[in-house]
Amino acid sequence: MPDFGDNRHREHLLAKHARVWEPHVAPINHLANRIADAEGIPRGHVPYVDPDLGGIHARVLVLLDNPSRKAKAGTGSGLLSLDNDDRTAWTCRLAYKEAGVDWRSVVHWNSCPFPTASKGPRSLDSERARAARWTRELVTLCSNLEFVLLLGGPARDGWRRAGRPSSLVVIGQGRDIPHCSGQGIATADAKKRFYGAIAELAGRLRNGGNARRNADVFQD
Fold it and tell me: What percent of the chain has pLDDT over 90?
């Protein structure tokens, strides 16, 4: 069994929560509170961004589907965090380490950032449509963004609904890069596609100005 993230340790998690209003993540976490207010749910139930990520200074937006059970307040950490105690975070953390992706270069977000009404693992089309404005606002907060990595079909759909401009290099809009959950990379092919996308992202981060070459550049 993998050794999942350190957010399972209370002291570690409390130390992270004590930092969620640091300047590089405070604007996004204030956005999370406004989303909770709009949805009529308690603040904190839209998970905050882990302060160990890049926040508004990130070069990469990694877009997933919806908060996992281990990210939600009450059942988990209340953070979008690579230290969460689940396979999704663990897989992504290992892939970043293998490829050399610095946590401070990325910010994680969900195409449906609030808890879903569905009993299944995926958000509903209507929820992603309702959340599209929040994705747009997140992008405006992150002025250093160069790349977007879309993990899974709901992330691709959520990004399409957000209608973002073509100034960002999008990895995964025109191809099936799976979500990094256990189910998402259950087959050898899916695992290869996921790890290949992370390696591609790492290469683009290293290459800087050459990143737009051969990219999936999204247009409205």
Answer: 69
